[in-house]
């Protein structure tokens, strides 16, 4: 692990009128960690992801990427510094094919990219096709996205996030909308694909998850959010055993029918 954290959030705060969606958030993420953010609905997980990726500006506080202050950077500038993300609801061009979506994502991750002219050079196509194979999406390469079921779109959104060789990858609920039967297969595919596409150094992953079976199996560390604050942060079993986490986070998750 490098001495400088890949990601450091310092006293991050975000208000929406009277609603405090993030309050005094301090999180360091070291290279290669797989940090899972848990918390009931409205706890502030997506707000955190949106701030790190430049989609939301914090009301106050600082975000450092490998020591560089990116707090006021735009999403595009953050992407070009090696941060990629997937969304709760995949952000895809439905009329375009799977490969065209991949090429567009690859192109947008590069400096001086023009969104309307995605790269179609042999090297870009080869990289995208390799990623599609690793995500078990090769059979869909030439299909328009509008024809694909939700679970496949979810995987495509994550594959697109990997096109630009990110050093930090944020996944917002990678298994939401995926059936209980398929959730482990989906996560195994995602983790394997991430590991096989990292270059010299391991990709650092921050993912939001409601399913505690997934949290236990795939997280190296867990941060529990409640009402915009981080109420516990540490090894998965320690955080999941924390009485406040059981009361405010996993208790409500159980009530919603998830498997904790
Ligand atoms: N654009 C916005 N405008 C107003 N309020 C917002 C906005 N985005 C988030 N909020 C509020 O901020 C709080 C945190 O929301 P956030 O989406 O970050 O929670 P979450 O933990 O990701 O929830 P979920 O698990 O349901 O996705 C909630 O009270 C939410 O209503």
TrEMBL record:
Keyword Membrane appears in the UniProt entry: yes
ABC transporter domain boundaries: 7-252
A Gene Ontology biological process term: D-alanine transmembrane transport
CDD domains the UniProt entry points to: ABC_Mj1267_LivG_branched
Superkingdom of this protein's organism: Bacteria
Pfam families named in the record: ABC_tran
SUPFAM superfamilies for this protein: P-loop containing nucleoside triphosphate hydrolases
GO molecular function, one term: L-phenylalanine transmembrane transporter activity
Protein name: ABC transporter ATP-binding protein
